[in-house]
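Researcher: Please generate the 3D structure of the following complex. Treat every line as part of one assembly.
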Amino acid sequence: MNKSAHYRASRSERADTGVAVGRAREGAGAGMTASLGSAEAPRHAGRDRHSLTEMMHAPRLAIEAVMPSVDDGRFAAKAIVGETVRVTAVILCDGHDTLAARVCWRPVPPGQEAAAGWHTAPMTLVQPAGNDLWEGFITPQTLGRYEFVIEAWRDVFGTWRNELTKKHAAGVPIALELEEGRRLVFDALDRLGNGNGQPLQDGTGEWHEPPALIQLRQVLAQLDHEPATTAERVDTLLSPETQAAMQQAEAFEHLTRSDCHYPLDVDRERAAFASWYELFPRSQTDDARRHGTFADVHARLPMIRDMGFDVLYFPPIHPIGHTHRKGRNNTLTPAPDDPGSPYAIGSEAGGHDAIHPELGGFEEFRALVRAAHEHDLEIALDFAIQCSPDHPWLAEHPGWFAWRPDGTIRYAENPPKKYEDIVNVDFYAEDARPALWEALRDVVQLWVDEGVKIFRVDNPHTKPFPFWEWLIADIRSRDPQVLFFAEAFTRPAIMARLGKVGFSMSYTYFTWRNTKAELTEYFTRLNESPLRECYRPNFFVNTPDINPVFLQSSGRPGFLIRAALATMGSGLWGMYSGFELCEAAPIPGREEYLDAEKYEIRPRDYFAPGNINGEIAQLNWIRRDNPALQRHTGITFLEIDNERILYFARGTPEQGNVVLVAISLDPHAAQEGHFELPLWWFGLADDAELHGEDLMTGHRWSWYGKWQWTRLTPEMPFGIWRVRAPDQGWRGVA
Amino acid sequence: MNKSAHYRASRSERADTGVAVGRAREGAGAGMTASLGSAEAPRHAGRDRHSLTEMMHAPRLAIEAVMPSVDDGRFAAKAIVGETVRVTAVILCDGHDTLAARVCWRPVPPGQEAAAGWHTAPMTLVQPAGNDLWEGFITPQTLGRYEFVIEAWRDVFGTWRNELTKKHAAGVPIALELEEGRRLVFDALDRLGNGNGQPLQDGTGEWHEPPALIQLRQVLAQLDHEPATTAERVDTLLSPETQAAMQQAEAFEHLTRSDCHYPLDVDRERAAFASWYELFPRSQTDDARRHGTFADVHARLPMIRDMGFDVLYFPPIHPIGHTHRKGRNNTLTPAPDDPGSPYAIGSEAGGHDAIHPELGGFEEFRALVRAAHEHDLEIALDFAIQCSPDHPWLAEHPGWFAWRPDGTIRYAENPPKKYEDIVNVDFYAEDARPALWEALRDVVQLWVDEGVKIFRVDNPHTKPFPFWEWLIADIRSRDPQVLFFAEAFTRPAIMARLGKVGFSMSYTYFTWRNTKAELTEYFTRLNESPLRECYRPNFFVNTPDINPVFLQSSGRPGFLIRAALATMGSGLWGMYSGFELCEAAPIPGREEYLDAEKYEIRPRDYFAPGNINGEIAQLNWIRRDNPALQRHTGITFLEIDNERILYFARGTPEQGNVVLVAISLDPHAAQEGHFELPLWWFGLADDAELHGEDLMTGHRWSWYGKWQWTRLTPEMPFGIWRVRAPDQGWRGVA
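Model: Done. Output below.
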C-alpha cells in the first residue's frame, strides 16, 4: 500500500504534463495517449472550423499552387540576382467574371521586419486559359532575402468591358449596359476624388491633377453630352485611355492574397555558374619532402585561370592533429614525417581559426587571396566541423563533446568510412548551446572577414539541420555574397533538405551516373520541382575521396567524356587536381585513389603528356560564351538512334542561344548515329536549313533537314554545336 | 493653388491607409505600392528569420511530404469510415542514428476544440529505406472530422542495439557498449520511477507495479550480477522483453511533430460506393397530360431496387415559377399547360422550403422517403440556389439580389447556356450577409430534418467557395451522414476546389471521354494526387442536360459500353432515366435531348423492347459482390493489342479480390485481341494456371499462360472476369 500510494502521488504530480504520462504508458507502440502536451500550436489546427462571420469575410478567390516555392513557403526558393523569376499560381473564383492579379515583391533586409515598399508586377492568364494558371515576372536586383505575395481580385470594369463588347458586336440592346458602365466610372471617380487621385508634383514644384482623374471626368462629360450616339458612348467607355484610368482607380473587389509570403534567396551569379578547381596547397611543390606553401600556390594561378576556372578550392588549411594521425593510404601507422589528413583539424598550433604553420600565416593567406582575385579566381575554403583529439576545444570546452563511460570520445564515422583521427562535437550537449554554435559561426565569420566568400562544407548531413538554417542565415544577413556548398553524399531527401535550409549548391550523384538512361533520368529530375527550386547541382567529376570506377579503366577518352558531361550538364562543375592528368590509379577494387593525397604530399607535372588541359580550357570557354550553358536548368533530351550517345539541347528561355551537345558514353570505340535537329524551336519546317557551329573547332556549316548524322571517336568523344536559324546572327541572337 | 492645396490635404488624410493610396496610384500595372495594408498576418512571414535561441530549440528532425493531405493541410483529405488510411511521411534527421515515429490521431467532435485523447499507431520505414518514407495505418471508426499529426524522435536504445549487435557479431570488444547500455536502462528506470511507471489497478482494485518497471529492474540486477558473462549480458540487453520495456520508458529524444494537424473528413460508405438513378417524379405517369406525383413514384421503387440502384435522385421538387417560364424544348413561348423547368424555383406556392403542389405535400414526401428506405433506396434531392422571378424572396428580401439600373435582375447564365426563367442571389450584397447565407443553410437543414441526407448541388461553381466551406461544415457538424454532390462541369482546378471545400463527390468529365487514350489518362489522373485525396468521381452516363454525342449514334451497344465503363470505372456511377431504354434522340447537332424532360412531362414504358435493364442489374450486382469495384481507386491498365479495347484490372489492396475488365469501345463491330493476365500479382510464373469466372454469365474456366485472347461483340461488348490463383477460393480469397 505504501508503494501504490507513492505511485499515486507521483502520478498526480505528473498529471499536468500530460505528454510524458501518456506517452510513457504506451511507449512507441499503438494505443491511446493522453495529449500532445505543450508543443507549439500546430499551423492549421482548427483552421477549417470557420464561423459564419469568418467565412462571410473569407477570401472569395482562391490562390493555389504558388511557384516558385519550397514546402509551401516554409523555405526560400533560390534565385539569381538580375535573373527574371517566373511566378505562377492557379487563381480561381466562383462564377464567370474576369479576374486580375499581380505579384507584390520586395527585398527583406536583415533585421528589418517590414521593408519599405512593395514592387508590383501584373500577372496574366497563361494559355490555354482552362488551366487557370497565371504568371508574372519579377527580377530581384540585389542580393539576399526577398519575399513575394500574390494578390488577385475581381476585375469589375474588365468584366463589364467583355460583356459590352460581346453584346455590342451581337447588335443587342445595350442601353442598360452603358448606364452600368457610366456608374462604374462614376464610382471610380469617387474613389479618386476621395484621396486616391493625389496631385502629382512636376519638376517645377507645381501640383497637377492625376491624369486618371482628368480622363474619367472627361469620360463622364462625354457620356452625359446629350447628342452623343450609342456608338460614341461605346467608344468612349472601351477606349484604352479609359481602361488605363479605370485601372488607376481599381476597386480591388474581393481582393485575395496568397496564404503566405513566399521567400526567395537571391544569390550572386556564381551560385549557379562557376567552374571549380580543387587543390591541396601542400602539394604545390616539386619535392614530396618539401611541404608546399601558400606562396607556392601563386605559381599555379595563371594556369588555373587559363583553364577557365573561377573558383579555387582548398581542403582544410588548419593545423593538423598528431593523435591517431593517419599514415599513407589511410593507415593507422603513420611514419614520423607523414603530414596527416587535413581533415583532422586542430593541434597545439590552434584549431579552426588558425592556419597550419607549414602553409604560411595569415599574411601569406591574404596575399594569396589577393593574387587569386587578380587572376579572376575566388578562393573557397573547407568548413569541416570536426576535431583532432588535439584540438584546443577538447581541453577548453570539454562540455562540447559527448564523452563515453571510459572518458574517451567516439571517433567519427560516415559508414562505411571510419575517421579514427577525428571526433565530432555534440551540438545538443548542455554546454554547447549556445557557446559551440556561436563559436562555429565565429569561425566562419573570421574567414569571411579574411575575404573568403565560399565555403565547401564537409559532411553537413551529420550536423543538425536547424544549426545550418541558423548559421547560414546569420552569416548571410551580414554578407549575402557568402555561399555554402554542401558535401553530402547521402539519401536524396536529406540532400534536398540541406538545399532547403540554405546551402546554395550541392554535390550530387553525377559521379555515379554513367549510362544514357541514368544520366537522362538524373538531369531531368534536377530540372523539375521540387529539386529545381531548392537544389543547385555542382557536378564534380572526381574528389580526393572519389576515384570513379568509370575513370579507372576508361583512359583519356573517359576523362574527356566526364568533363563534357559535367561542363555541359550544369552551370556548376568542378574537378580535383589530377583529373586533367587523367590520374586514375585506384586502391584495387575500391573507388579510392591509390596513394591518396589526403594522407601525403603529391607533387605533379601539370603538363605531363596526355593531359586534357586544352580541352578543359575550351569547354570552360564555351561555357562562358553561351548563356544556355550557365545553368543546370533548360535541358531538353533529343532523339538519336544510338544508346551509347547522350544527345541534348540547352537553350535560354527565348531560344536566343541554343547549343546541341552529343556525348559518346563509350571511351573505347567510335559511336555514330542519326540525330534530330530541334527545327521546331526556330519555327522551321522539317526540311529547313539550320546553321551549325562546332564550338570546339570553330568550324561552321549548314544543315538541311531534321535528321542528321554524327560520328564520335574516343579521340574526340563529343560534339558541341551552337545552332541558329539562317536569319539569326552567328551568336544565335537575331 | 487652391486645388493643389486641396489635394495635398486629402493626400495626407489618406496617408495612414497605405494600401489604397499606393494601389490606386499604380493601378493593376507594374510599379511600386506602399504596403499591403491591414491584411491578416501571412502564415510564414518571418518564419525563416530565426534567432539562435529559437533554432537551438527547433525540431532536430524534419517531417516532410505528409500524406494524405490536401494543400498541405489547409483542407481535409477524404476517408471512409472503417476503411484503413495509409499515412506516410518523409522523416529525416542528421547523422546515422535510428529513428522512430508514430501517427497520433483522434476524432474532432464539432464544437470541441480539444478532443479527449489521441490514438497512436506506430510508423515503420518503407523499403527501400533510401527513400526515407515512413508509413502507419489508422482506421477511423466514426463519421465526421478527424485529425492526425506525426511524431518522430531519435530512438536512442534502438541505435545502441544496432551498434551492439553489429560489434558483437564482428567479435570486437564491447565492454564499453555494454556499460552504455546499462546506463540507458538505468535512465529509463529513472524515468519510470519518476512517475512514468504508474502502478496499474487490477480487477480487484489492487495496485501493481507496471511490468516495464519490473523488467528493467531485473535487467539491471542481471547485469550487475558478477558472474554474468558478456554473452549473458548481451542476451539480457538485446532481449525482446527488454526492448518492449525500454519502449514503455521511451525518452522521445528530439521529439519532432509535423507542422500541422492534418484533417480528415470521414464519410459513410455511400460517399464512395453508390449507384444513382435519377428521375423526374412528375413524369411517373402514363399520360403526359396527367402530372405525376410522389405517390406515383412508389410503383417504380421495386424496379429501381431490382436494377441494383441505391440512391434515387430527384431534380428540384419545389414550386415552379410562372414568369418567363420555359416551354417545350427550352423555348421562351410556353403553352398554357407547359409545366416549366423545375429549376425555376419559387412561386406563390413558396420557395426552396416548399413542395410543388402537383407533386404532393410533405406527408406524401415523407411517405415516399419511408417507402424508398424499405426498398433499400436513399432519396437524394437537388439543391439549386436560384429563384424564379416569382420566388417569395424577391419581394421579401430584395436586398439579397443585385438589381440593375432599370430595376430588373440579370437572369442566370452558364455560358453558353441561358436561363431566362431564373435569377441568382447576390451572396455579397449588404443585406445578404448573414441573412441569405443562413436562409440557405436553413433550407438544407429543413430537408435534412425530413430525412434527406444526400444533396446534389446545382452549379456550385457559380456560388462562393467560402459559402460552401461554411455551409457543408455547418450541416455536417450536426449530421456527418449528410453528403453533398457537386454538379460543376467547369475547369479542372475549380472542380477540385469544390472537393476541397467539402463536397463529398463530384460530376466528372467521364461523359466526354471516349477513346482508350482519353479514358486511360482520365482514370489514371483521378487515381493520383492531388485529386485522389480531394475528389471522388461519380460517373454519370447521361443527365437531363447531357445527351452524349457517342450515344446519339451508337445504338444499344453504346449504352452497354458506357454502362460498363461507368460501373467498372468508379465506385460511384449514375444514370438519368431513359438511359436504360437507350433513349438518344438529340436536338440535331447538339448534346441535348430532343423534347427534354426538363420542360415537359415524359411518360415511359420502362420495359420497352431493347432495354438494358437486365445488364444494368447484373453490373450493379457484380459491384456489390466485389470490393475491388467499390472504389474509383486501385485501377491498373494492362496490355491488350487492340486500340479499341480498354482493358484494366481492379484489385483490393491485398489482391484478395481481383477483377479484370475488357470493354470494347466500338459499338458497331466486333473487336478482338490478345491480352495479358497479371500473373505476377499472384506470384505466378508466366506459364502458370489462373482461374477465371465470367461475372456476367457465371461461366468458369482455367487460363494457362500470361497471354490470352478475347473477342467482344456489339451484342456483349465487354467481359468482366474475376480471377484467382488456383490455391484461392472462387471468390478470390484464399
